[in-house]
Design goal:
Length: 355
Amino acid sequence: MSTSPQAADRLAQGDLDQGTPDQDTTTPEGRRAKRVLLAKPRGYCAGVDRAVITVEKALETYGPPVYVRKEIVHNKHVVETLQERGVIFVEETDEVPEGALVVFSAHGVAPAVHEEAKARNLRTIDATCPLVTKVHKEVNRFARDDYDILLIGHEGHEEVEGTAGEAPDRVQLVDKPEDVDKVNVRDPNKVVWLSQTTLSVDETMERVDQIKGRFPDLQAPPSDDICYATSNRQIAVKAMAAECDLVLVVGSQNSSNSKRLVEVALQAGARASHLIDYADQIEESWLEGVTTVGVTSGASVPDVLVMQVLDHLSQRGWDGEVEEVTTANEKIQFSLPKELRKDLKENPDAPKSVR
Ligand code: SF4
């Protein structure tokens, strides 16, 4: 799939650097004009960019097949595109042939997974996002200091499994409000909360307040665990949601941060919001009676998919200039995993990225 120049041309050129969209406009006939508001930042974060490029460089440097444990990032389009290029996605390392190359996904893995890979003589490249690694290190530090660690996150999510796996006998997961009552700690003065990186900022603070009701001396993480990309995308969607009859979030069903964007849009005043992988999933009924459509995307979504949504809307009458609602300009980049960097010195040509 290619980026649509038509959609890109419809973006307002750098003149909307404010946190709130322009006021509503009307047609000469006095009707409200159809508008599209486009959140910025949206889409790829630095951790996803790094993980996808890691797999692409691994393919180019070592040749297919490259095995990847779990989805490299939670996006259908990215996974399918990499599969076409020779990536084999597996659930566990025991599906990888002895001695083969396996990449660990951006969500991180528990130490036990590294040990399993070593026992099977696998060559590994760890594409864990450095901001997830930061939380792993916090778990290790607080476990060493003999704290009980309450990890706020979604049960069954790969990131949570990897993070909790750093100190399984010290970490308890808090997902739903009722989990707070089930927590058992050894010393109420030595309890710390940490979190998954892709949660709703507001909901997480509600959960923290609830935990504090039980453990008033609860310690906080040394710095935010919810990453810059997750919170920036939530701030951007909040800035435009109240103006929108409909907010379309491009992202996959298993993408935590994308799902949170739908929730945040609704809480911030959007009349309706839906999560879609592709433009063709937009149901015609969603557009009935709609004037202002907001568009954003999760941190694992290539922008080509957003451009296709803009094209889809354009064909249905939303064909004016797209107003970009900018609340932050992100410049963060992470260097590639060290296992790959040394081999790349011999083969420095950049591959074509899934964008
Ligand atoms: S969403 Fe945040 S933690 Fe996850 S990969 Fe992106 S930057 Fe890293």
